[in-house]
Amino acid sequence: MPLQARIGVRSYRFRDLKELLAKASPMRSGDALAGLAAINAEERMAARLCLAELPLRTLLDHPLIPYESDEVTRLIADGHDATAFAPLSALTVGGFRDWLLAGSGETVSAAAPGITPEMAAAVSKLMRNQDLIAVACKLGVTTRFRNSIGLPGRISVRLQPNHPTDDLRGIAASVLDGLLYGVGDACIGINPASDELGRLGPLWRMLDELIRRYEIPTQSCVLAHVTRQIEAIEAGLPLDLVFQSIGGTEALNASFGISLSLLREAHEAAQSLRRGTVGENCMYFETGQGAALSANAHHGVDQQTCETRAYAVARAFDPLLVNTVVGFIGPEYLYDGKQIIRAGLEDHFCGKLLGLPMGVDVCYTNHAEADQDDMDSLLTLLAAAGCSFVMGVPGADDVMLNYQSTSHHDALYLRETLGHRRAPEFEDWLLKMGLLDAQGRLVSNPLVSRSLLQALPELSS
Amino acid sequence: MSPSGTSPPPCGEGLGEGVSRQRNEHSDGSRPPPQPLPAKGRGYAEHPSVSADPWSELRLLTPARLALGRAGAALPTAEVLAFGLAHAQARDAVHTPLDVEALATQLQADGWPEPLLVHSRAADRAAYLARPDWGRRLSEDSLLSLPAAAPADLVLVIADGLSATAVQRHAVPLLRALRPWLTGLRLAPPVIALQARVALADEVGERLGAALAVSLIGERPGLSSPDSLGIYLTWAPRLGHHDAERNCISNVRPEGLGYVEAARQLAALIHQARAMRCSGLRLRGDATALPPPG
């Protein structure tokens, strides 16, 4: 069918689905940089009018990136569940939006295996921020390893204790700061500065010792390259979660030095350790809009659609956590607070729609037109949307990666102002440790902090 | 960009730029940790609504912002203001224009020839931030203004990058420390480049006929480091080089990598690049192999 829309006397035509989706996307600098954005506001609306009339099926039948040349496309096509798709098969993209907003969470969740990334991305382009929140909020996704993440009314936090030189004592200090603030139920995850196994090993050992000694119902992760983590497993190191940055095209994944088969190998290696106590979700993935363009691996597909394709990669491995690092990439992809907020809500919605335990690194760099007020807005909106987890960085200042994320205090704000609770197992542990009172409020317990401080030299030796 | 996975470029022009936060090489291993925050514990205990955290001794172990205390669930006022000030300084570093006249005067007072001034295709800061591709190419006027190629061993390109503050503060003293190592080299006139990304030095170096381009450029400001200078070295500069074909020295500033040590590391890279006729991953920048200055 021809892709066109008429507005008054003007007629707009779109060359193909890629162009239609790109021009229907809300304005963002990355699509302009790629030369894919609508030329003006009316053309953007024309694309949306046309997209709204497009049968959803078209997005299944006409892959944006050819099946023959991209293994992510093959994963999407081969994994499509026609039965789950049946209730949607007669809908247009516009009708799909209405269906999502009108239906129950159970109905929408049941369709997830029939929804492709392209369908999710397409419908998100017709949705306001409010719609992205309303639908995501209905979709419960719960995952488990040593605790339960994503239960209704709860939000978890990844404790991110990075240090510029991987100094063990410096990292341990930040871990204690986080635990004493009641943070760390999504995981304790270190971005290492080093990539040498000899320097990474002590990080895994320290977190393992800490988690075992204090019987903390959480999981550790060291966010090195996946090949390094496979080597670590082979070397007998105590890994809980295996991490990898992933993208939505085979070419982007190649630029990350990974493929689906390497991820399969890593997933099997992680599963073989059987370290989870209440579940077996053992993968942690990170993504972010703009990555594909930055690696020149986007095939002319807009950055939000590329991003959503990465979620197809994630869902093939039943992850515990998927995190879109939304404002990290810089203003050439997401220019300001408005674009970062919109992208965060899109990514969270699309991930949840595909059935993923979606968290968001609510963050920005100093060359973006954004500040703490923008982060407060996005954090609050994500909590309303039922986001699975956010980051917990001491004072919001990541001194290794040089960007600003959310802090332990930000997590407390969500708990006290919006009433969002921690993962139940972790909450019980904090109660047992005397760090929460009976009302679930954080208390300053000098005895506990003293005992943890005394253990620090031993943990980090 | 700094993609993860395979081998990343020696450095990205904005450290950590790019979506993946994985690092697979200790690319900036020479980088000492940022200094501890200067103004910790600004008397918030005086405020009765603030509860201090009884683990403030941990601050000695990391530059991270630990044990900040809280007012209810929130940061105490003093910490909100300290963060706000750090962000303000980082923002100003991104947006304050380079004072070209002052820089040129200082360079000439130090005995460098009169610098050439070029501009990228990014007309202003907003365009520069949104279009990195424009920041990598010379404007048409600048291209025409450059003198014809004359054989030179080295061109120094002093570029504002993401922190003109860093360039204003550190370029001249760094070059002063470097100067003794450059004896005997044929130098092209130094070039000051505005709204410039790292790769702009490729076109400049090619146009001037320099065998080697060294750019000093303001790095993306961190919250605790608004004035980090980066150094990039490219053999046989020409349009289309990849970042992996460059070498980088990062975080040059008195609180990070000092001028003398940075100059030594740069001199070692220059020496090796000239000997091996290349730059990038093959160079190790081994300062022990460096002949003495003079």
List the keywords.
heterodimer, A: 461 residues, alpha/beta, four-stranded parallel beta sheet, 14 strands, 11% strand, globular, B: 294 residues, Rossmann fold, six-stranded mixed beta sheet, 8 helices, 6 strands, disordered N terminus
Structure in words:
The complex is a heterodimer of chains A (461) and B (294). By secondary structure, chain A is an alpha/beta fold. Helices cover 48% and strands 11% of the residues of chain A. In chain A, the strands form 5 sheets. In chain A, strands 7-6-5-12 form a 4-stranded parallel β-sheet. In chain A, strands 8-9-10-11 form a 4-stranded parallel β-sheet. In chain A, strand 6, helix 12 and strand 7 form a beta-alpha-beta unit. The longest helix of chain A has 17 residues. Chain A is globular and about 75 Å long. Chain A starts with a strand and ends with a helix. The model of chain A has no long low-confidence stretch (mean pLDDT 96). In chain B, helix 6 links the parallel strand 2 and strand 3. The N terminus of chain B is likely disordered. By secondary structure, chain B is of the alpha/beta class. A 6-stranded mixed β-sheet of chain B has the order 1-3-2-4-5-6, sandwiched between helices. Chain B has a domain of 193 residues: Ethanolamine ammonia-lyase light chain (EutC) (Rossmann fold). Chain B is built from 8 helices and 6 strands. Chains A and B meet through helix 2, helix 11, strand 8, helix 14 and strand 14 of A and helix 1 of B.
